[in-house]
């Protein structure tokens, strides 16, 4: 069969014509467009990567070459990375602190956010618009408004002498941190729950499930990717948080990584130890970058909630 | 909080006014909804609502300093001063030399915050839209670009501040490339631009990502029809792309604006606290707080809060930013539309939490 059709085609078209058909010539304008779009994309990637590249390069110099402007470090050295973990900097401890703070914030946020978001996505009730505005407003307001009363309260100065001394405790960062973590999670999860057809629960309820069981057995497993994405996003936010940690965690043994890095001092004391700071910056960022790169599709989908396919 | 009450008209009518198909799952479950939402609402009230009220109270007091004339001991506690913390911003008691001449430290910080926000948001929007247009044209390699764009987003702001601090060092790579000796970090006019560049780097690409999501909802048929009618590329961009991407873009710009208005990490990490050329309101409030001047700090924070609310209000009212993206009732027939509506705000919210 195939041979006959090929023969038939050859009768009408010469070989050259066939080839031309197989590779249609794009108009010049379109080809320039393609080239330009690649150039543009390369420019975007370079724009995003180059400053980060500088951070990596600077971390790989010798500690004495902190301010060198060579584009490739020579000789390369990992001394900065060893210096990061010198007992002076307390960096290892601060990583653990960050993990505790960000982890707890994420778990609490999801715990309360999931049920709240489910109600917002599924149930009809009076005052829903008000609740949505409230949550939105909460995510908008400047965190710095919390500082004066909370610092006063947590350090149990007058008139808050009844309040336990909370400076240098994890909860002093975790609890105010919920004020931006929770709205974020509720908003994101509401979008995810809405994407699941309501017929799923209806079918489960026809089969005899209570709404609670339908939620647990049908919706939760299906929403797992969305919950996971929300968890990553909230975790990154909490991990990157700086202002609260800077204000409330003053003791070196309780500092989170972001605060610890900002307070690095060199052995000499006067010269900023840029190499060490950059090495610590890379160490703090790389786990996030790996998570982001592995789950990039999912995160972008989460960030734009269905816009990017 | 205040926004919720300040804008009752924009709160969409809830269920009762509309006619819906009966749905055993979601009708008449008002009480269940409130039970499920209770933990979230209680937490928000405790961690945000109460501190805001406390802040308002705080702003009417001043911490006592010096020696109590009656007892001869160091004075403690606080005194009610009424609106003095607010009115003192007009008294000019604390003049500093900044980018805009000599003025009270509060107004200097206020102008810094405003101008940094305006310049950053304009630059980020222009760059972001350009990036989105490039990405929308792309056939292959979108994954790489997307990964690249997430790099600045994932870096902690304070780390990026220190990174730019090294780049802008007086003997750093920025000066080497420019072949100049600009003192970026020495609290000069250049410091302002250093902040702008660092902030734009971190967030422009992300506006691009959001705008791309908006671009992809525009059906190709619209452009084909325009081409048939002989529209030029520029006309297509102005008459089709911009109007159709506007809802997404306005929300993204709104949240970037609010986020930049409360900028703290970058000026603090890059230039330092108490540097008047780049001191934002957040940095100023932080400094006042840590120096135990709680009353004025709270007053300035509240002014910042009201400023943020005002800007949000203007965006919602004048530019029609659809922040909520939800009519209050799940639309059953238009699931797709619903998702898209819910998209941009969710996104913008990420950015909102991005760089305190």
Count the E strands of chain A: 0
Shape of chain A: flat
Rg of chain B: 24 Å
Total number of domains of chain A: 2
How would you characterize the largest beta sheet of chain A? none
Oligomer: heterodimer
Shape of chain B: globular
Structural class of chain B: mainly alpha
Give, in order, the helices and strands of chain A. Answer: HHHHHHHHHHHHHH
Tally the structural domains of chain B: 1
- Overall pLDDT level of chain A: 83
Architecture per CATH nomenclature, i.e. the level-2 architecture of the largest domain in chain A:
Orthogonal Bundle
Reported by name, the CATH topology of the largest domain in chain A is MetI-like fold
Identify the biggest protein-protein contact and residues per side: A-B, 119 and 136 residues
CATH class of chain B: Mainly Alpha
Can you describe what's shown?
The complex is a heterodimer of chains A (309) and B (356). Chain A is mainly alpha-helical. Chain A is built from 14 helices and no strands. Chain A starts with a helix and ends in a 5-residue tail after the last helix. By secondary structure, chain B is mainly α. Chain B has 14 helices and 4 strands. In chain B, the strands form 2 sheets. Chain B has a two-stranded antiparallel ribbon with strand order 1-2. In chain B, helix 8 (189-215) packs across helix 10 (233-261). Chain B is globular, with a radius of gyration of 24 Å. The chains are: A mainly alpha (309), B mainly alpha (356).
Helices and strands in order, then pairings?
The complex is a heterodimer of chains A (309) and B (356).
Chain A: H1 2-12, H2 15-22, H3 28-59, H4 79-84, H5 91-122, H6 128-140, H7 147-154, H8 171-195, H9 199-206, H10 211-240, H11 243-248, H12 257-262, H13 274-294, H14 296-304
Helix pairs in contact in A: 3-13, 5-8, 5-10, 6-8, 8-10, 9-10
Chain B: H1 2-6, H2 30-58, E1 61-63, E2 78-80, H3 84-87, E3 95-98, E4 101-104, H4 105-137, H5 142-154, H6 157-167, H7 173-178, H8 189-215, H9 220-228, H10 233-261, H11 265-270, H12 281-290, H13 294-318, H14 335-352
Antiparallel strand pairs in B: 1-2, 3-4
């Amino acid at each position: 069969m195939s041979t006959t059709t090929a023969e038939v085609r050859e009768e009408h078209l010469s070989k050259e014509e066939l080839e031309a058909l197989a590779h249609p010539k794009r108009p010049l304008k379109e080809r320039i467009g393609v080239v330009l779009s690649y150039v543009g994309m390369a420019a975007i990637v370079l724009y995003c990567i180059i400053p980060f590249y500088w951070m990596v390069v600077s971390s790989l110099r010798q500690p004495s070459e902190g301010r060198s402007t060579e584009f490739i470090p020579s000789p390369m050295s990992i001394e900065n990375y060893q210096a990061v973990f010198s007992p002076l900097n307390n960096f290892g401890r601060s990583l653990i602190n960050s993990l505790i703070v960000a982890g707890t914030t994420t778990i609490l946020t999801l715990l309360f956010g999931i049920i709240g978001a489910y109600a917002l996505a599924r149930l009809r009730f009076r005052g829903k618009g008000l609740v949505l505005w409230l949550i939105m407003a909460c995510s908008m307001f400047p965190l710095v408004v919390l500082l004066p009363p909370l610092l006063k309260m947590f350090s149990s100065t007058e008139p808050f002498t009844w309040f336990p001394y909370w400076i240098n405790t994890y909860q002093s960062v975790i609890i105010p941190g919920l004020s931006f973590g929770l709205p974020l999670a509720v908003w994101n999860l509401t979008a995810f729950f809405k994407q699941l057809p309501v017929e799923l629960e209806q079918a489960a309820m026809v089969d005899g499930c209570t709404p609670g069981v339908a939620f647990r057995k049908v919706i939760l497993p299906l929403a797992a990717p969305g919950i996971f994405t929300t968890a990553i996003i909230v975790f990154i936010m909490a991990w990157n948080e700086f202002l609260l940690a800077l204000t409330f965690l003053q003791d070196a043994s309780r500092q989170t990584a972001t605060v610890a890095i900002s307070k690095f001092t060199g052995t000499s004391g006067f010269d900023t130890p840029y190499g060490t700071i950059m090495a610590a910056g890379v160490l703090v960022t790389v786990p996030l970058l790996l998570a982001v790169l592995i789950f990039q599709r999912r995160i972008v989908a989460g960030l734009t909630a269905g816009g990017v396919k | 909080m205040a926004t919720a009450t300040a804008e009752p008209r924009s709160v969409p009518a809830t269920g009762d006014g509309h006619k819906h198909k009966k749905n055993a799952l979601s009708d008449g479950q008002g009480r269940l909804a409130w039970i499920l939402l209770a933990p979230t609402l209680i937490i928000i009230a405790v961690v945000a609502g109460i501190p805001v009220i406390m802040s308002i109270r705080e702003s009417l007091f001043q911490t006592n300093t010096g020696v109590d004339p009656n007892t001869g001991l160091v004075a403690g506690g606080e005194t009610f001063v009424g609106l003095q913390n607010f009115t003192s911003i007009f008294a000019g008691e604390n003049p500093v030399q900044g980018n805009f001449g000599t003025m009270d430290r509060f107004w200097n910080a206020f102008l810094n915050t405003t101008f940094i926000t305006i310049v950053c948001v304009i630059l980020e929007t222009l760059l972001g839209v350009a990036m989105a247009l490039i990405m929308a044209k792309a056939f292959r390699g979108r994954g790489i670009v997307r990964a690249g764009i997430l790099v600045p987003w994932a870096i902690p702001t304070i780390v990026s501040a220190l990174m730019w601090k090294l780049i802008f060092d007086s003997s750093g790579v920025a000066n080497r490339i420019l072949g100049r000796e600009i003192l970026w970090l020495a609290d000069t006019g250049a410091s302002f631009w250093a902040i702008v560049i660092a902030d734009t780097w971190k967030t422009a690409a992300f506006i691009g990502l959001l705008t791309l999501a908006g671009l992809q909802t525009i059906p190709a048929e619209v452009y084909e029809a325009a081409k048939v009618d002989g529209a030029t590329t520029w006309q297509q961009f102005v008459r089709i792309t911009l109007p159709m991407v506007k809802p997404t873009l306005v929300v993204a710009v709104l949240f970037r604006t609010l986020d930049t208005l409360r900028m703290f990490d970058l000026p603090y990490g890059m230039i330092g606290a108490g540097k008047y050329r780049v001191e934002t309101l957040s940095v100023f409030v932080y400094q006042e707080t840590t120096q135990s001047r709680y009353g004025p700090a709270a007053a300035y924070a509240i002014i910042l809060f009201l400023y943020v609310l005002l800007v949000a209000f203007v965006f919602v009212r004048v530019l029609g930013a659809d922040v909520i993206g939800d009519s209050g009732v799940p639309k059953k027939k238009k699931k797709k539309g619903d998702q898209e509506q819910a998209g941009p705000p969710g996104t913008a919210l990420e950015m909102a939490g991005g760089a305190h």
